[in-house]
Amino acid sequence: MKATSNGYFQGDSPLDFALPLAILQICLVVVLTRTLAFLLRPLHQPRVIAEIIGGILLGLSTLGRNKAFLNAIFPKKSLTVLDTLANIGLLFFLFLVGLEIDLHSLRRTGNRALSIAVAGISLPFLLGIGTSVVLRNTFTDGVRGPAFLVFMGVALSITAFPVLARILAELKLLTLDIGRMAMSAAAVNDVAAWILLALTIALSGSRSPLVSLWVLVTVATFVSIAPKSY
């Protein structure tokens, strides 16, 4: 897909080129999410809720079921550009969040944040495993037992760090003790989730148990060495 077109009056369709299509997608997302945020304002919901609902409306669950709309506005060839822009925006937002966070204050919440993170991930993880035991019989092809159990546990116990940061920033709680505690616990939760996700990938992509053992060894090494660098 080329970046820019020669213009509509030259016979080019703007939707066939990356830059005009990306601008249209961004405008559509912004207008829809801002409209939803305005409508949800009486309910005192954070803006991220409107953005999640907007994603559902534009996704495959609703408008995306219309193939004409999906192929015209969100064709597969444009998703790479849109995903790149989304990641750049996420990195920029987390950079702004980092500017407001005091690392010394985060370190003081270490033990309490660790306890909260363990409590926050344990129960959903166990419930996820229990759910996967029930649902496992509904899948017949391509599903391995241990990998499916761990994946379902991770999927139901993970904390979306950027979403939490967005909510705390909007409520102006990032610099307060409760905000620091929540961010610290979410960071620990995120690290644990990525470790478990790596274990899931190792279990599903390899027939040898040594791969899973290697993942656990490298994780243990990282956890033992990383705190010494701070």
For the secondary structure, the number of strands is 0
H/E series: HHHHHHHHHH
Give the fraction of residues assigned to helices.
over 70%
Uncertain residue ranges: none
Largest sheet: none
* Overall body shape: globular
Structural class: mainly alpha
Nearest-angstrom radius of gyration?
A: 22 Å
N- to C-terminal distance? 45 Å
Q: Please, how many domains?
A: 2
Tally of helical segments: 10
Bin the strand percentage: under 5%
Residue-averaged pLDDT: 77
Family: Belongs to the monovalent cation:proton antiporter 2 (CPA2) transporter (TC 2.A.37) family. CHX (TC 2.A.37.4) subfamily.
Transmembrane segments: 17-36, 48-64, 84-101, 113-135, 147-169, 181-203, 209-226
Membrane topology: Multi-pass membrane protein
Keywords: Ion transport, Membrane, Potassium, Potassium transport, Transmembrane, Transmembrane helix, Transport
